[in-house]
Amino acid sequence: MVSDSPLLVVQGLSKHRITSRSLPPSRAAERSSSSSSLSIPSLRTQQVTSIDKGKPAPSSNGLHPATGDPPGLQLTTSDDNEADAEEEAQEGTATQVDRVTKSTGSLTPAHHSVITLSDEENTPADYLWYDVHFTLNPRDTIVIQGPSGVGKTTLLRAIAQLTDCDSGTVLLRQQSPKEMGIPIWRSRVMYVPQYPAIFPGSPLDFFFKVKQFSAHTSKDYWDDPVDIANRWGLDEDLWCSEWRTLSGGQAQRAALAIAIATRPDVLLLDEPTSALDPQSTRLVEDTLRDYTCLWITHDPQQAERVATKYLDLRLDGSCEFREAKSPSNHGPTMRTG
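RE: above sequence
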């Protein structure tokens, strides 16, 4: 039986269509001082240099400038940043997207997770999303749906503390990101982008680097990403190949397997099977039944297969949270082989 006890709670998380990032520094400071205090700390990650077409961003020692940790899994490619910029343009934010290339983010398995979102009294018209509220229970999958430009990816990035919001609190086991520490938070609430960055070295090299993160060194047990991806048909030899030589589907499976192997509490999945064939997609879906996920998909058939609940985002800033018709999808599954 799955516990109904919430682990991840999001309250009052709202994002304005024009955020403080688009204001001059003096206006941004004025707005910050006059607005109600935020329970969510600033989600803006220190700007470094964007990764250009898979080339690693230059740095003096290859470590995160703020923490000294090696690059995190939540690196983004320039294509990923361009996609974010396009989405924000569609959302009407007219803001400059931060070019984040290094973070101490990490991954967590979903056996203990719940999420709830809500907002203080405000008018939805000026918000990208407003008064979002829901609860994510252990081993649930909430599928986030909505038209292009509605802010689906932005919502995932906000929960992962990778982009800023205007109000709200996010709690994991009654702790805020500030109390927990952002690196630890990102190791337990893990964002997996649709297009993984092309890291230097091989996927196996990167996995060993992730294990060195300060947010992960206290972990006593890790899953084997090679074994995880082997269930999805990824050849073991590819783990020693350069990232740049992998196809889109191979890189997507390797990155997702590394994320799962770090044993996160919640997986934030942005089109995680978009580059996979139908057979591999079904295998990945079967594995993810054992995890707690927020999952963006534009495939309605996939949504029906994986969702226990839905969060529908609308262009007017409103949203609807509803149960799936078959919430038992995430019951125990029979595995073969």
